[in-house]
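User: Look at the shape:
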Amino acid sequence: MTKTAAPLPSSPSSPPLVAGLLLAAGGGRRLGGRPKALLPYRGRPLVEHAVRVLREGGCAVVHVVLGAAAERVRERAELAGCVVVENPGWDGGMGSSLRVGLASLAADPRGVDAALVSLVDQPGIGAAAVARVRGAYGARDALAAASYGGRRGHPVLFGADRWAGVAAGAEGDRGARDYLAAHRDAVALVECGDVAEPFDIDTEADLYRLEG
């Protein structure tokens, strides 16, 4: 069996590669089964907006994890330039999508130094918040998160040295919460409450936030 060499980290002379990791697999159970990636936002699928935010925030490399209605998302959304992967176990919760996404980043031959994780259903978090959290990268063991009035939220930055630990604890809908709680003293909180709103699009009552 031929073994694939692990991607090398960025050389000391090159800037670190902080890639965006967009979790966009949700099926929208409380939205009548409408996949969140395909919710209309400003005339286009919501997933396109989320990708654009990551890019405008400084993530030139973006990996997108799809799940529910993945084929329809690929057909309708413009995701050119993204690494798109599918999570066949998406209905098991966000944790499985996080594991799939981190595995995709680990296999990226460009040698990704950190993952900046965002959620497709948070359109109130824009490029300014992404750029702030991305700026917290210092080394491959970096651990940072946006905060809103002192409360931790998204996006979250994981240096590559932490991916194995994050993936090991990513179960159900808890995602990386247990890992972040266990390492709370190492998490650099980056206040973003002045530039972003961390609401989720979870229910029919939230859909008004996509208007306009």
